Amino acid sequence: MAQIRDVAKLAGVSPATVSRAYSDPSKLSESTLHRVLAAADELKYKPSSLAQLFREKRTNTVLVMVPDIANVLFARVVSGIERVAVENKYNLIVSDTGDDAAIEAVGVEMVETYRADGVIQLGERPLSELHPEGEQCAIPFVQAISADPRGRYPTVGIDDRKAAGMMASYLLSQGHRRIGVLAGLENRVVTQERLAGFKDSLAAVDVPFDEVAVEYDTYSMAGGERAATRLLSRKGDLTALFCMSDEIAIGAIRTAHDQGFILPRDLSISGFDNIEFGKYCTPPLTTVMQPAEQIGEVAMSLMCDILRGQTMPKTHEILPTELVVRASVQKLP
Amino acid sequence: MAQIRDVAKLAGVSPATVSRAYSDPSKLSESTLHRVLAAADELKYKPSSLAQLFREKRTNTVLVMVPDIANVLFARVVSGIERVAVENKYNLIVSDTGDDAAIEAVGVEMVETYRADGVIQLGERPLSELHPEGEQCAIPFVQAISADPRGRYPTVGIDDRKAAGMMASYLLSQGHRRIGVLAGLENRVVTQERLAGFKDSLAAVDVPFDEVAVEYDTYSMAGGERAATRLLSRKGDLTALFCMSDEIAIGAIRTAHDQGFILPRDLSISGFDNIEFGKYCTPPLTTVMQPAEQIGEVAMSLMCDILRGQTMPKTHEILPTELVVRASVQKLP
DNA sequence: ACATTCATTACAAACGGTTTCATTGCAAGC
DNA sequence: GCTTGCAATGAAACCGTTTGTAATGAATGT
What we know:
Chain A contains eleven helices and twelve strands. Chain A is an alpha/beta fold. The longest helix of chain A is centred in the C-terminal third of the chain and has 18 residues, at 292-309.
């Protein structure tokens, strides 16, 4: 591979001049610029990013830590991050953490050893290691898909409590009073927020909250199946299931079908996230739209701001959600 | 950030010794090693990857080009690539090409400018730019999810023709004779291979192939909906739909439901890929299992071999597929 | 005609490690 | 006792850019 020296020699100038031909062409005379460019072209010269980045002490790379890249919601967020990254000439190193704290800790190291300029974390694991002693965050960091307002670092997400409340209100407005909850993992902030929103709406219309009608499991279709199986065997009188994710809802639909329920006649089911498959369920899933791509875009924009300005804004961006009414929730007479 | 000089000074040795303490500790005496490590620890010294990589002229990074990261099949392949990458201490730069050739060309450049050591491409765009003049491939390159045996570069995938034939044979064995085909994009090798496999099986039992019963569209749920709508309005007598992907099948199921078909009684539908959602369809989707994660793993292993050995094996790894029988295909009387 | 300014361009240091080669000191072999 | 060999370590070169500073020369002003 040709390098800057070769070009300089061929063009009869110094390496510095060649370098400036790229970084600030206005500093060169018309004729020299032309000569340099021609020489570079002839030798097919491409500056070594490795050398450039080493000099600049920047990597132009952002690390994205994803609990599970095969999860469609996360994949869409990554997609949004990508779009903005490309626009701003950043590369993305994607790390599938598998929800493993050990792998996540590597993220900090990658920034410290100059392999990445910053970290975007999807999901809510707080990564306490990243933020020693409650001080200002040590490295450029943005958390997406979790808008924990108590966090000390910038976050991008939705108002889970409000969004869940919106869906619960809708179920109530359709006449449902005995509503089961298929929750995700109990120890997640997301789960607690959505549960709180659900309770808010019940309280607002004086419907008592039935603690027994809540089943926790993983945020997955398999989790939805398991949770639904347990709940339906325990509570036979429910008219609706409030599911904390579309995947959970899809699992619940499978279980309900298998148990002979006719949907939505015998049981209404609502989801959360609005993944594409929900539209293709039978019946099509009523859910809450979470702007996944946009969350990714905003997160990456924030990261760009941080990297450019070196300041760490303490914002908590809350993006709007929307009720998506389809056919899986029925209006009771 | 502390650097090697600081550690050397504190330990009372030369930078070279500190360097060796990491790269080949056996070269140091017990006491020096201990002293160096203690000093490094005290200063929280982390060698700068940027400097190391610059010296070594390697990036320890592989570029993965994905047509659409939000596609579950691709996401699973990436997941498999990830696993092997982590094992071998490689980082992954993931680029969502959006099926755009311009972005894909950037891949070559990233290797040429030392931003990545090699490229794994998902999907089948041939990227002729990568392989100028039919010579041995210029940069470390592996293509996954497409086992085009005519390619000059290593590939990992399945035998699409055989797999499609297997499914077609199954449909035939269940008594279906008037089978419609919902194909993906017509100009893709994958599509042509699967169609060929379909024809193979028909020919084997002397069932004539009906050219009119093929509809092409994108490999997506929306594409499946559109294609199914067109096909069903044109051909009323079909007993089964052979879909070239699960997403297409899921779209077709939606369309069939909407048109009042009772599935699978009135119409059998088969998919291809075995994505997780197929299991949760109504009815659960009969499909062909494609080992997506494994394809990713093999692709990355191949890449590791190439990067280590500098040789570009001309293998075409064919991974096994499996018929997954669920409920969306009915046995005709 | 000479000083001054400005536009161009060259020179050389710097970035932070790794590695080659040379040096030192000590133990073993004759 | 002197040579030889080996283990341990240091000095310095090197990787390919960028950039601060100096040098050059032409143009301008007086």
